[in-house]
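=== RUN LOG ===
request id: a7f3
mode: sequence -> structure
chains: 1
length: 454
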Amino acid sequence: MTFTSWQFGVFVAIAFAAYYLPALRAFQVQLLVFASLFFYGYGQPELLALLAVALFGTYLFLILALRNRRAWLPVGIAFNLALLAFFKYKLLFIDPASPSLVDFAPLDFLLKLPLPIGISFFVFHNISLLVDLTRQKAGPPTLTGVFLYIIFFPQLVSGPITRAEMFMPQIKPKYFADIPFVEAAKWILTGFFFKLYVANNLNEMTSYMSFPLYETLQTQDRWLLVFVYSYQIYADFFGYSAIAIGLALLFGYRLPINFNLPYISTSFSEFWTRWHISLSNWLRTYLYVPLGGNRHGVWRTYLNLMIVMGLGGLWHGAGLSYLMWGLMHGLLLVLERPLLPRLASIDFAVFRAARMTVVFVCVSMLWIFFKLPNFDHAVGYLAGMFTPSTNPNPTKLFYSLALLYSLPVVIQHLGFRLLFEGRLRWVEPYLYGSMAALMYLEAGPETSFIYFQF
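=== RESULT ===
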C-alpha cells in the first residue's frame, strides 16, 4: 500500500479515528501494531511470516542480551544481518527463473520469495533496538512496544531510521488535543507535492537514462538528465520522509528530520550530514565508531571511511554499481579530509558557491551508478557524456519542462523558505494552496517511491 494511493487515505482515516477513541486509548499501541501489520501485508500477505520471524527473533535475542550482553548481542545482530543478506544478496548465487533451485522444497520456497519491502530499514531498527536497550541496562520492554518501534507504518518501508533510545520513550498514551495539526499538515502537503509534482514528472524524463534508451540521447542531454535525476531522487525521498514525519505527528510520534537542503553543501562530509541524515547517523553510531572512527591515526580513519561508505553502498543493493557509488563517496571523503581546515579558512561568497557547485556536480555524477545498477550500463552512460553523439535522430527533451519541474527543489535550496517564515509569512497560506493545486492538477504519472526497492 503506497502513500499516494486512495486505499492508503482510507486506511489512515480509519486508523486515526479508532486511535483517538477514548474507549480504545488503553489499546493505542496494539492498534498501531495491528494497523502497521495490515499496511505491510497489504498486497503481499506472504511476507508477514518473514516479518514475524524478524520481530519475534529480535525480541528473543533482546531478552537474552539484557541478561548477558556480551554473549547474546552479537548473536542478535548476526541474526538480523543474516536475514538481510539472505534476501538481499541471494540473487548473486541463484537463478530465480529456475524451476527448482535446490532439492529441498521449504528452502526452494524461501529462495523464491520476493525481496521484502523495506527489509533494510527494519533490520537497521532491529539492530538499533538491540544495541541501545542493552547499553542502557533497563528492564525488558513490552512486546507490543518493541513491535511498534520496528514496524510503525509511516517509517516502516523507507524510514527515517529512528534510534530506539529516541522512539521508545515516546510510547505512552496520546490525546487528540495534543496533535500539532498545522505542523503535520505542512509536512504531509509538502511531501505529496514533492513526490507527485516534482519527482513523478521528472521521472518521465529520467526514464531515458535507462539502457538502451540512453543511446538515443544527445551528449548535452545526458548531462541534463544527470542533474534532473539528482533533483528527482531528492524530491522523491524527501517527499516520502516528509509524509512519514507528518503522519507520525498525527499519531503522536516525532520522527527525525531526514533531509536538510543537501545540495547547498560545501563539502562531501557536510553533504552526508544533510542527505539521508538518519542513515548517516546510523552508520556513524553503529559502524564507524565501533570500527575505531578517527581514534587510531590518519590512515586507519581513511580505511574506516572507505569501509563504511562501501558497506553503505552495498546496503542499497547487491551490485557493483552500488559498491562503486559507496566507494567513490568514501574516496571523496578521504581526499577532502586533510583539505577541510584550509578550505574553511577561505570564506567568501564566490568561493563558497564554487565549492557548492563542485560538490553538487560530483554527487550528481555518482547518482548514475545509483540509477543504473548494471555497472556496464552505468559506465556506458558515463562514457557517452564525454563523447559526441552520432545519433541522427536523437530523443527530444523539453528543457522548459525540466526547469519547471526542478524549480521547487532549486527554490527550496536557495532559502526562500526563510522569507515565508519572516516578513512574507502572510504569503504562506497561498504558497501551500498553490502546492496543493499543482500536485492535484499537474501530478506526474504514478510511480513507486525510489527507496521502496531497498
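=== NOTES ===
The two ends are 16 Å apart (CA to CA).
DSSP finds 21 helices and no strands in the chain.
=== END ===
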